[in-house]
Design brief:
The chain has helices at residues 2-23, 25-40. By secondary structure, it is mostly helical.
Length: 62
Amino acid sequence: MLWNISDVLMGVMAIINIPVILILPNTAMKALKDYERQLKMGMNPVFKSKDIGMKEKLDCWK
């Protein structure tokens, strides 16, 4: 019974995560390119949402 419940919950988790995985690749690639650009410039990479074109200010996680 416990294994069946855990299988159902894993399925629910996948259903929630799959749409997010399909939405985020563009933003994630922009962040990766910005990170690599900062490394090439010899900087200590710092995430700033405006550098990748995000409208929301996400420089501090809440």
